[in-house]
Design brief:
The structure holds 2 protein chains of 2 kinds. By secondary structure, chain A is mainly beta. Chain A is built from no helices and 11 strands. In chain A, strands 2, 4, 5, 6, 9, 10 and 11 form a 7-stranded mixed β-sheet that branches. Chain A has a 4-stranded antiparallel β-sheet with strand order 1-3-8-7, with no helix packed on it. The termini of chain B are far apart. Chain B contains no helices and 11 strands. The radius of gyration of chain B is 13 Å and the shape is globular. The chains are: A mainly beta, B mainly beta.
Chain lengths: 114, 113
């Protein structure tokens, strides 16, 4: 157990819908990273938040957005869902704002879009 | 941005043999190279990392080597065991701020008893 929690574990929804994935970082960690893992794309960095502020964006679609709240938990919002959005979504947390500090991954949320 | 290539995509070894996974990166400014292990259905976990000021780092049966001139780094697992079977990912920072990681495509290692 890494100390990072993610809810829900599984999510099945239809195309065009909107979902929210939630992540709680390890106690004391200020950084939250979101990743998408699909069979053909591997692990893709989406976005990074540090202490409530967005610090970096990867190949995140405009239909996706995220935020980190004052209690440091983070939410990833996915809207106008498409079949290709089906994937495993991981969040990771670290103490600092740079990747040189170890990232601890949560168990992931498996999203299935039908 | 950084581009990380990882080879091989699959690797099958006999228990007790060594396994080597190689990654190349494109950005010569990259200075931190972690390796993650992901067992089936589980989260990625950091197993070892190396910074650009050293050429090799060992932790029991696992070692990582870095060749900055050639821009490649490798994971070495000795005396492999069935529990080493997993997908292994290398990564490198994607930006100068060092807060974005680009991952390699992964290597599925199978250790046959």
């Amino acid at each position: 157990d890494s100390g990072v929690t993610q809810t829900p574990k599984h999510l099945i929804t239809a195309t065009g819908q909107r979902v929210t994935l939630r992540c709680s970082p390890r106690s004391g960690d200020l950084s939250v990273y979101w990743y998408q893992q699909s069979l053909d794309q591997g692990l893709q960095f989406l976005i990074h938040y540090y202490n409530g502020e967005e610090r970096a964006k990867g190949n995140i679609l405009e239909r996706f957005s995220a935020q980190q709240f004052p209690d440091l938990h983070s939410e990833l919002n996915l809207s106008s869902l498409e079949l290709g959005d089906s994937a495993l979504y991981f969040c990771a947390s670290s103490v600092e704002g740079q990747t040189r500090s170890e990232q601890y991954f949560g168990p992931g949320t498996r999203l299935t879009v039908t | 941005g950084e581009n990380v290539e990882q080879h091989p995509s699959t690797l099958s070894v006999q228990e007790g043999d060594s396994a080597v996974i190689k990654c190349t990166y494109s950005d010569s400014a990259s200075n931190y190279f972690p390796w993650y292990k992901q067992e089936l259905g589980k989260r990625p976990q950091l197993i070892i990392d190396i910074r650009s000021n050293v050429g090799e780092k060992k932790d029991q049966r696992i070692a990582v080597t870095l060749n900055k001139t050639a821009k490649h780094f490798s994971l070495h697992i000795t005396e492999t065991q069935p529990e080493d079977s997993a997908v292994y990912f290398c990564a490198a920072p994607q930006n100068t701020a060092g807060n974005m990681l680009t991952f390699g495509g992964g290597t599925r290692l199978m250790v046959k008893p």
